[in-house]
Write a structure and sequence with these properties.
By secondary structure, the chain is an alpha/beta fold. The chain has a single domain (about 5-40, about 65-360), classed as Aldolase class I (TIM Barrel). The protein is about 40% helix and about 10% strand. It is built from 16 helices and twelve strands. The strands form three sheets. An eight-stranded parallel sheet has the order 4-11-10-9-8-7-6-5. Helix 14 links the parallel strand 10 (about 305) and strand 11 (about 325-330). The protein is globular and about 60 Å long. The N and C termini lie far apart (about 50 Å).
Length: about 400
């Protein structure tokens, strides 16, 4: 059992233990990857304030997210094809999250299906939905999520058109991988991964195949997806899905204060400040830079969460200090999943929790829910003085 002291340890193991195309799928952004890098780098510009001579007994990371009690304000993000990083990966991640007391979010493009997760866990999980042109498919997914007892719907708004990720194109990414000479050699160099994949029946997109119209096999999934992302998704359609769902709704992909206000107006129980991990609009702001302006725009009218670039417990604290009520982690837990399966996801959560606890204490704070602006130092120009090029007048 390797000694894990930080998320970076899991990242190195992950890269060693999975075939290259699935490592590249995890560790990539769109186009130049500027936003992908900024998501991580901008956290490093914020400093924590060390305070001393404080009572540090009775510390607690416990919080709530949309009314759900959580052991720490961290949820597992929806990640497509997580079951290709480790066999039955979504089941493993959901079990680790359940045992740790944090929410798990299943992606529409997961390998394990909604029904698989419901059958292998007891705690209600969250389901992430992509809006497709096929309304029957969308309505069917919502009904399946209801039957599975999902306690929140995470509706993604920033994937109406798929951003280009160069590595996926060069690797000719598929799930499972095509049996080309290059891929066969790569799999042979990762025998443990290959053996586990050979032993599971879950190697395709469990929420899509057999559920989407005329998608009876894996070969049709990619074409169906590329042709069915809904470029006409607007706030009226968001309202229709809200009404169809009827439960807790988190709107994911908010990066602009105007959109944040619109999300509140349409009835979001929470908004997730997200740029899709830097995988959609390259050149967009990092989420931690965008967060303060969005918090100001919505005030107390809804809960604000953040994903993108969270690689440590210190990052979680910084997001809380800038106004987030909780964070989502994607790559941080995916590194653990690819490295060591369920045990690796648990290790990632343990690392983040320990870093939060120690760092919070050294800042003189007992409760994570009390961590706020007074506990960090932010550069004066951190948010930037951006202006809309068209008018040259309105700063955002």
């Amino acid at each position: 059992m390797p000694v894990i002291t930080c998320i970076e340890d899991l990242k190195r193991l992950h890269q060693q233990r999975v075939p290259r195309m699935f490592w590249d799928y995890c560790e990539s952004g769109s186009y130049t990857e500027q936003t992908f890098r900024d998501n991580v780098d901008d956290f490093q510009k914020i400093r924590l304030r060390q305070r001393v001579a404080r009572d540090l007994t009775g510390r607690s990371l416990a919080s709530t997210m949309i009314g759900l009690a959580v052991s720490m304000p961290v949820a597992l993000s929806p990640v497509g094809s997580a079951g290709m990083q480790s066999a039955d990966g979504e089941i493993k991640a959901a079990r680790a999250a359940e045992a740790f007391g944090v929410p798990f979010t299943l992606s529409t493009f997961s390998i394990c299906s909604i029904e698989d997760i419901a059958a292998h866990t007891k705690a209600p999980f969250w389901f992430q939905l992509y809006v497709m042109k096929d309304e029957d498919f969308v309505d069917g997914m919502i009904e399946r999520a209801k039957r599975a007892g999902c306690s929140a719907l995470v509706l993604t708004l920033d994937l109406q058109i798929l951003g280009q990720r160069h590595k996926d194109i060069k690797n000719d990414l598929t799930a499972p991988p095509k049996l080309t000479p290059r891929n066969l050699l790569d799999m042979a160099m990762h025998p443990r991964w290959a053996l586990q994949m050979a032993m599971t029946k879950r190697r395709s997109f469990g929420n899509i195949v057999g559920h989407a119209k005329d998608v009876e096999n894996l070969a049709k999934v990619t074409r169906w997806a590329n042709e069915n992302y809904d470029p006409q998704l607007d706030w009226a359609k968001v309202a229709r899905i809200r009404d169809k769902w009827g439960g807790k709704l988190i709107l994911k992909g908010i990066l602009d204060p105007e959109d944040a206000r619109a999300a509140v107006d349409v009835g979001a129980d929470a908004i997730l400040v997200s740029n899709h991990g830097g995988r959609q609009l390259d050149g967009a702001l990092s989420t931690i830079r965008a967060l303060p302006g969005i918090v100001r725009a919505v005030g107390e009218r809804t809960e604000v969460y953040l994903d993108g670039g969270v690689r440590s417990g210190q990052d979680v604290l910084k997001a809380l200090a800038l106004g987030a009520k909780g964070t989502f982690i994607g790559r941080s837990y995916l590194y653990g999943l690819g490295a060591m399966g369920q045990a690796g996801v648990t290790a990632a959560l343990e690392v983040i929790a320990k870093e939060m606890d120690v760092s919070m204490a050294l800042c003189g704070v007992q409760k994570a829910r009390d961590f706020g602006p007074a506990h960090v130092l932010v550069p004066q120009d951190f948010e930037g003085r951006w202006q809309q090029a068209q008018s040259g007048l309105s700063s955002i």
